[in-house]
Amino acid sequence: MISRCLVVGSGSIARRHIANLRQLLPDAEIACASASGRNVSTEETAANICFSSFSEALSWRPEMAVVASPAPLHLEHAASLLATGIAVLIEKPLSDSLARHDALAENLIPYRDRIEVAYNLRFLSSFQRMQTLLKEQIVGRLYSIHIDLGQYLPDWRPNSDYRKNVSANRNLGGGVLLELSHEFDYVTKLFGRFDRVFCITGQSGALDIDVEDSADILLMGSSGLLAQLHMDFLQRKATRRCKVIGQHGNLLWNLVSNSITLENASGQEILFSETDIDRNAMYLELLRGFINLAQGHARPRITYEEALGVLAMVDAMRQSAETGLPMPISYISL
C-alpha cells in the first residue's frame, strides 16, 4: 500500500491532486514541494507535509509522485523521480517543447512504463460514449471533424490575477496550444493520428499576455479525414464542442453539457446526456489508475508515447504558424 506520495507544484491543479489523494489514500502522508522554491504551508495546500525545495522532497523518499509544476519543468522533475524508482503522473502537457524533451529523452524513455500523463478528459462519460458510437460507425464513413473551444481567460480563476498564471506566460509553458492540448489528445484517441497540419495563431492584445490567445488549426490525415479546430482564451461564454460529419449524419458532442446528439435528415436525437455530474470524478478516476500503476498492478492508460505525440503536434503547429506553410507531424517511435 502507498504510504508516501509527493505532489510537485502548489498551483490550483496541484492542490486538486492533493485533495483527491487525501481522499483516495486516507492513511498515506501527502507531501507538497514548491516548484519555484517558495515556502508553502500545509494550510495553503492541504498537504500533510510541505517542502520548500524539490531536492528536500526527493530525500523524503516518496513512493509515487504527481508532477504539477510548470510545463518547462515537468520532465526535469520527472527524470529525477524516475531515476530513484518512483512512478510519476505528469500533468499535461508532457513538456513545453520537443527540444526540451529530446534533451532528457535518455533519462525518460527507459522508464516510460512508470509514467502516466494527466489527460483527464479520457474519463469524461461523454468521451467514453463517443468512443463507443464511433466504433459502432453510427454515422458511417467520417468526412470531417469541427472543434470549437474557448473561454475567457480572466474567468478561469477569478480569485487570482490571470496574467500571473501559467496559462498567460510563455516562460511557464502558457498559450492556447499547450494549455488546451486536451483537444489534441482526444482527437487523436478518437480518430487516429494526423499526418500534416496548418496552423494560424493570434495574439489579440486584449488580455495583456505574451502568448497566443487564439489558434485556428487544420489537421490532415492520410485517409483524407480533416479536423478543423478553433481554440481561444477570448470567448465570454465557455464553449467546448466537437461536431463529427459522417455519411449518415452528424454527431454533436458538447463537452460542457456532457451530451451527444445525432443529427440527420430526419431531425435530431439525443443519444447521451449526463449533465448532473461531478467533474472532479474524472480526476479521481485518473488517480485511481495511477495508484494501481505505482503499486505495480497496472500499465499506463494514458501513455508517455501518446503524450509525446501531442507534443509533436504542437511542435508542427508552431512551425506552421511561423512559416505560414503546412507542416508534417514528426511523431517519435519508441
Mean pLDDT: 95
Q: Count the domains.
A: 2
The major beta sheet can be summarized as: 9 strands, mixed
CATH homology-level superfamily of the largest domain: Dihydrodipicolinate Reductase, domain 2
**CATH architect. name of the largest domain:** 2-Layer Sandwich
The total strand number stands at: 15
List low-confidence stretches.
none
Count of helical stretches: 10
Helix content: 25-40%
Gross geometry = globular
CATH class of the largest domain: Alpha Beta
Radius of gyration: 20 Å
CATH fold assignment of the largest domain = Dihydrodipicolinate Reductase, domain 2
What does this molecule look like?
- The chain has 334 residues and is an alpha/beta fold.
- The protein has 2 domains: 4-120 and 282-300, NAD(P)-binding Rossmann-like Domain (Rossmann fold, 3-Layer(aba) Sandwich); 125-275, 2-Layer Sandwich (Dihydrodipicolinate Reductase, domain 2).
- The chain has 10 helices and 15 strands.
- The protein has helices spanning 12-24, 42-45, 54-59, 74-83, 98-104, 125-135, 176-179, 182-191, 280-294, 304-323, and strands at 4-8, 29-33, 49-51, 64-67, 87-91, 115-118, 142-150, 196-202, 214-220, 226-232, 239-246, 249-254, 259-264, 267-273, 327-328.
- α2 (42-45) links the parallel β2 (29-33) and β3.
- α1 (12-24) packs across α9 (280-294).
- The longest helix is centred in the last third of the chain and has 20 residues, at 304-323.
- The protein is globular and about 60 Å long.
- The chain starts with a strand and ends in a 6-residue tail after the last strand.
Task: Summarize the helices and strands and which ones pair or pack.
Blueprint: E1 4-8, H1 12-24, E2 29-33, H2 42-45, E3 49-51, H3 54-59, E4 64-67, H4 74-83, E5 87-91, H5 98-104, E6 115-118, H6 125-135, E7 142-150, H7 176-179, H8 182-191, E8 196-202, E9 214-220, E10 226-232, E11 239-246, E12 249-254, E13 259-264, E14 267-273, H9 280-294, H10 304-323, E15 327-328
Parallel strand pairs: 1-2, 1-4, 2-3, 4-5, 5-6, 7-10
Antiparallel strand pairs: 7-11, 8-9, 8-15, 9-10, 11-12, 12-13, 13-14
Helix pairs in contact: 1-9
